[in-house]
Amino acid sequence: MKTEIFHWRCKHTWSRSAKNTFWCLLGCSIGDFGTILFFQLTKISFPVLAIMILAIINGIITSIILETIILLRQNFDIKSAFKTALGMSLISMVSMEVAMNATDYFLTGGAILTWWVVPIMLAVGFVTPWPYNYWRLKKFNQACH
Length: 145
Fold this sequence. Notes:
Layout: H1 11-42, H2 48-73, H3 78-88, H4 90-108, H5 117-127, H6 130-140
Helix pairs in contact: 1-2, 1-4, 1-6, 2-3, 2-4, 4-5
């Protein structure tokens, strides 16, 4: 039986994993940025770390919702779509969220959205889980969408 050797040179897999990572980033960003923006605009007194933890949780929730919707549009039943969205990309979502919020913390002191920090957070949030998404897709042919 021939065993295929894993490699990092497949352009098709990089392209497909980039698409999957983008959808994850979009979902995570909605909840994450929405939470930070809410506290920033309302000026509710809340510890920065608590805001960032809440932003991470909300980012993961909105990503799961978005990915479930995407899978439903691909004719998954609701239970399978939710289970797939929850299970297959949790590592990707957590690493993305932690990277984005750590970037925000180191650049602004945390829980502050400015015109210049958002693109950096998005870039870091995209690049962090992308190799994992490539590996999972290449090694197991598993993707969230």
